[in-house]
Amino acid sequence: MIYSLLARMPVPVKLGIPLASALLATACSSAATASPGSAPAAGSSASTPATGTVITTDAGSAGTFLTDGSGRAVYLWAKDGMNMSACSGACAAAWPPVPATGMLTATGGAKASDLGTITRSGGTKQATYDGHPLYYFVGDSAAGQTNGQGSDNFGAKWWLVAPSGAKITAADTAAAAAANAPAPSAPSAPAMPGSSNAGGGWS
User: Fold this and answer.
1) Tens digits of per-residue pLDDT, 110-134?
2) pLDDT tens digits, residue range 61-104?
3) pTM of the model
4) Predicted pLDDT of residue 10
5) Angle at CA of residue 88, ends 161 and 95, nearest 5°
6) Sign of the torsion angle spanned by Cα atoms 181, 182, 184, 190
7) Taking the CB of residue 7, how many other CB atoms lie within 10 A of it?
8) Distance between the two ends of the chain, CA-based, in angstroms?
């Protein structure tokens, strides 16, 4: 039956059948290959962990201390209670709480088991370490700076935090030397209002 149908078909149609079959087979094979290839790509992006707050360590003359993932020093405040922040308003403007975003991650000498969060009065989450709420200092404008070490702003001391969770009370002489270095000559253009905020370089 099939042979008699083929015999009655014109020659151009007979030649087109194998070509169409080959094209159909190639298309099916491509679809089968593309489908599995695209699935892992989607799966891999879904399995990539969301970026979040990273707490790691850096070394200074006062010892090894905690920083965030970009190298910015973090501090504890002696006035805070365990897992409680007493710093708000003007205090929080000068000593911004370290936000707890995404998944908290410990690297370097920091311990994941000591990481935690508290909820501030405004509803935002703040990172803690060994129960100490963590803060930045607006006077630190670059990685490795510890200009807030030993400050008594707002009635209590601010200290760098050791990987053990203990406060570091020694002076960081490297940071002090950098802070006391002669300032570069003033630019010819007038300074913009608010440019004195040393923390402006940090996002």
Assistant:
1) 999 999 999 999 899 999 999 999 9
2) 989 999 999 999 999 999 999 999 999 999 999 999 999 999 99
3) 0.64
4) 58
5) 40
6) positive
7) 8
8) 78
Beta carbons within 10 angstroms of residue 134's beta carbon: 27
Phi, psi torsion values for 57, nearest 5 degrees: -135, 160
State the Cα–Cα distance between residues 117 and 100, nearest whole angstrom: 6
CA dihedral for 104, 84, 75, 142, sign (positive or negative)? positive
At 106 the three-state DSSP class reads strand
User: Which H or E run contains 66?
Assistant: strand 63-68
74's CB contacts (< 8 A; 6+ apart) are: 55, 66, 67, 68, 98, 127, 129, 134, 135, 136, 160, 161
pLDDT at 2 over 90: no
Q: Residue 30's pLDDT is what?
A: 42
Query: What is the Cα–Cα distance from 107 to 111, expressed in whole angstroms?
Result: 7
DSSP strand pairing (105-106 vs 115-119): unpaired
H helices present in the chain, as ranges: 2-8, 11-47, 90-94, 173-180
Q: Report the distance separating Cα 101 and Cα 176, nearest Å.
A: 31
CA distance 106 to 54: 6
